[in-house]
Amino acid sequence: MTDKNSTFDSVNELQLLIKSRYPIIYLETWEEERAERLIKIIAKNLNKFLFIWKSTKGLFRADIQETIYNTVKPLSALSHIYSSNVPAIYLLKDFHYYLEDPVIIRKLKDIAKIFENRESTIIISSSLVKIPFELKRLIAYYELKLPSQKELLKTILEAIEELRNTAHIKIEVGRNELNQMAERLKGLTEKEAKRVVFQAILHDNRLSEDDFARILKAKKTIIETSSILEFYYSEESLSSVGGMKRLKAWLKKRKGVFCEKAKKFGLQPPKGILITGVQGCGKSQIAKAVARDWNLPLLRLDTGKIYDKYIGESEKNLRQALKIAESMAPVILWIDEIEKGFSFLASSEADSGLSKRIFGTFLTWLQEKKELVFVIATSNNISSLPPEFLRKGRFDEIFFVDLPDYQERKEIFSIHLKKRNRNPEDFDLDILAEKTKGFSGAEIEQVIVSALFSAFSGSGNLTTELILEEIENTRPLSITMKEEIETLRNWARKRTVPAGEDFNKEII
Fold first, then answer.
1. Which residue, of 130, 218, 370, 382, is most buried by count of CB atoms within 10 Å of its CB?
2. 71, 136, 135, 90: which is closest to 108 by C-alpha?
3. Which residues contact 207 (CB under 8 A, 6 or more apart)?
4. Fold of the CATH domain 4-143
């Protein structure tokens, strides 16, 4: 098996930058070893020497490993590079730490000038992007994306081969299953993916379809530990969500469009939807249900985790999360209560403009993203979002989830009774729906749960009467927050599309 197809997919643009004589390239990557391996291939292709610098060793030629005298200090290493006449690629690892030194900046400017005619290139590799303003016109930025499915398949095969050389293992999957495994590993680095495969095989010295769940569990742990994303396994389906006929129909039309066939048909994949509405009416449930219905991975972006006390870390957190989402495409990115992370007062400078920068970064990505990432954002207080968020083109549609009407309440009762192994026909759904006017879906579910507790501790039978008792003891949000809900509904009537057949016209 060769490196050629899968590896060169990742480095073509980097090789083009080097051939185009950019004197300095800033390479953003979490995968230092993978980056070094790919740069070695490029150096060989271009018939150039490759020199590597590390603060712990100094400058050395990649194929010799012997350190060049007096090059451990960054300025000394740059001085050697400046005086060398050999056309080469110089890979400087973690050099971003020294880019705040004005002497280092000056030396890089000098090197950039002479490299125009020397056909040499400096590559600064780092997981952090810190390009000084003075060097921005001299440095080309390149991001080494996380491994593609093709590259991850290669990683799986390499892991299998390594273990075969050291242990007796059984491989009980074919090429199709290995491709599916590679698909499930998207979003991980090469090393992370290899460790997950090792773990799956060494558990019982075999690799089978039974290991798919183990692989997804390990991936979930890695993603949630290393980023602000949560990896969800959704058990919900659209049939388990009551009401929202118009929204369900909209989603049904767009199911299955993340494919080559749809692209050839002339369809552009949908960008996403913003769902606002009354609390407890199923906004988050819809996000989980769509992932299950469309058979796509579901990532939840926790906006509360974006902000970090260290300078630059907040922007990094968001960029990293979006890159992981893109690497897993097609995928659904769920942003719950989006106003908590992206609402701000335009006049506020309390955070030195951090909120505006975070908002701007996300807005730009939302507008320009090319990968198949379908965004589902939910909001309880959409009026607190900046108006730029609601402009056409950011989202495909803005839906409003209202309090359920009579028929929707009957449907919600039926769904939650079935969920708890009860036959809805044994209950008077008409009177239950009538008595829960103004109740949200979550409140209807809760009265059933409360009634179940009463039944368990009493007669043992869940009845319509027990549920009615719990309804009488419940004060829904439509009463306790009547003014706020009416304000929200009045705002939504002019600006959004109802998720149900129409806005609920019942008097609350």
1. 382
2. 135
3. 160, 169, 170, 171, 172, 173, 197, 200, 201
4. Rossmann fold (3.40.50)
Task: Report residue 153 as tokens.
Answer: 């398949």
Beta strands in 166-308 (DSSP E): 170-171, 206-207, 229-232, 272-277, 298-301
CA atoms within 13 A on the CB side of 186: 19
Q: What is the pLDDT at residue 343?
A: 63
Same CATH fold assignment for domains 4-143 and 149-226: no
Q: Give the rounded distance of the alpha carbon of 493 from its chain centre.
A: 31
Which tokens is 312 given? 């630059």
User: What's the confidence (pLDDT) of residue 308?
Assistant: 63
| Per-position DSSP letters for 162-189, written without gaps between them | HHHTTS--EE---HHHHHHHHHHTTTS-
CA atoms within 13 A on the CB side of 210: 10
pLDDT at 353: 65
Contact (CB, 8 A) for 244 and 441: no
Phi–psi pair at 42, nearest 5 degrees: -65, -45
CATH superfamily to which 238-401 belongs = P-loop containing nucleotide triphosphate hydrolases (3.40.50.300)
Closest Cα partner for 8 from 49, 48, 50, 39? 39
**Residues 41, 47: Cα–Cα separation, whole Å:** 10
**What architecture (CATH level 2) is domain 406-474?**
Orthogonal Bundle (1.10)
* Amino acid 357: pLDDT: 79
- H/E run at residue 357: helix 354-368
Question: Which pair of structure tokens corresponds to residue 216?
Answer: 């997804």
Helices 464-472 and 441-457 pack at an angle, to 10 degrees, of 120
Q: Which pLDDT belongs to residue 507? A: 47
CATH class of the domain at 149-226: mainly alpha
Residue length of the chain:
508
Q: Mean pLDDT by 10-residue block, N- to C-terminus, for the chain (508 residues)?
A: 46 89 93 94 94 96 92 96 93 94 96 90 92 91 90 93 89 92 92 93 91 89 87 81 90 87 86 90 88 90 72 76 89 88 54 72 86 90 79 86 91 93 94 94 94 89 94 90 86 87 65
Contacts of residue 433, Cβ cutoff 8 Å, sequence gap at least 6:
406, 407, 409, 410, 413
Task: Tell me whether the omega of the peptide bond preceding residue 330 falls within 30 degrees of 0, making it cis.
Answer: yes
Amino acid occupying residue 363: L
DSSP, res 194: H
Domain spans, the chain: 4-143, 149-226, 238-401, 406-474
- For residues 71-104, one letter each, b for 16 or more C-beta atoms within 10 angstroms of the residue's C-beta and e for the rest, the string is bbebeebbbbbeebeeebbbbbbbbbebbeeeeb
